[in-house]
Prior knowledge:
- This protein has a single domain (2-246), classed as NAD(P)-binding Rossmann-like Domain (Rossmann fold, 3-Layer(aba) Sandwich).
- It starts with 11 loop residues before the first strand and ends in a 7-residue tail after the last strand.
- Helix 1 packs across helix 8 and helix 4 (106-134) packs parallel to helix 5 (156-176).
- It is built from eight helices and seven strands, in the order E-H-E-H-E-H-E-H-E-H-E-H-H-H-E.
- By secondary structure, the protein is of the alpha/beta class.
Amino acid sequence: MILENFQLTGQVALVTGCNTGLGQGMAVALAQAGADIVGVNMTDPSETAAVVTSLGRKFLDLRANLSDTACLEGVVQQALGLQGAINILVNNAGIIRRNDAIEFSEKDWDDVIGLNLKTVFFLSQAVAKQFRKQGTGGKIINIASMLSFQGGVRVPSYTASKSGVMGITRALANEWATHGINVNAIAPGYMSTDNTAALRADAARNASILERIPANRWGLPEDLAGPVVFLASAASNYVNGFTLAVDGGWLAR
């Protein structure tokens, strides 16, 4: 039956940046579908862990500064301690820096590109090597953005990084699909998270954003539940290199 293709029972999902917000929402959704979760964070993910374990799933709490790519192989090896395998990677961890392009610093450029793009590539590489070693394929889900499609304002390094995420999603899919590895991305629209707190607090900016969203509301972490489970499951086995916008209709406007 078709619903069985969405089940993740017995699988292990490595989710970065899942202590709050969208990462937490996706980790919980994967657990609801049956997956055990390896959460990689810099801060305490106790709330996420509590929800996952309340669902009867395992949660392995790993702490790492993912901006340092030297830690990535160790993260993968530690993740294997949960069930001896990894089946799903969700590259969610990311940062944003805001300033006018004319004043934007090299540090803010490098910090954002480093975590949002370089780490995404090299963690995907490390996990793909493990997938190939296991011989069972796997799923990699990158987190893109509306700014993978648009230029944005006052976030040049974030726009560059998320445009890059869309590009490497396609590139990796081209090389790894033959190994049974599906690489796709989700591009969240304007979501109610810590990253958008400043925008939502600005009454004029908030109103202009809502005016363009046909759904007439900010997105919520649970809005990513269906898309992430789909892309993590056998239901998406013939989906490769695609970036799925979950945006309340923003791009259609």
